[in-house]
Specification:
With 72 residues, the protein is of the alpha+beta class. Helix content is 54%, strand content 17%. The protein has one helix and two strands. A hairpin with a 4-residue loop joins β1 and β2. The protein is rod-shaped, with a radius of gyration of 19 Å.
């Protein structure tokens, strides 16, 4: 889950916390994009191996990946 930080005016520690949270969120978003990309690659590999049109769906909240043959 993406974490949010609240900055109180004039507090240096809050600015550092915001930077830390932004770094963590950036890493999380990069990882989620990588998962989406790899799921698409898996669907393409299944199409090469087994023929047909394949789809992939990633649900990051439920932490599931579904790959299926779409042209049945």
């Amino acid at each position: 889950m993406i974490k949010f930080a609240r900055i109180q005016k004039g507090k240096e520690a809050d600015k550092l916390e915001l930077l830390r949270v932004a770094t963590l969120n950036g890493g999380l978003l990069a990882a989620m994009r990588k998962v989406d990309f790899q799921a698409k690659e898996l669907a393409e590999s299944m199409a090469l191996a087994h023929g047909g049109e394949w789809q992939a769906r990633v649900d990051h909240q439920r932490m599931t990946v579904l790959v299926w043959k779409a042209d049945d």
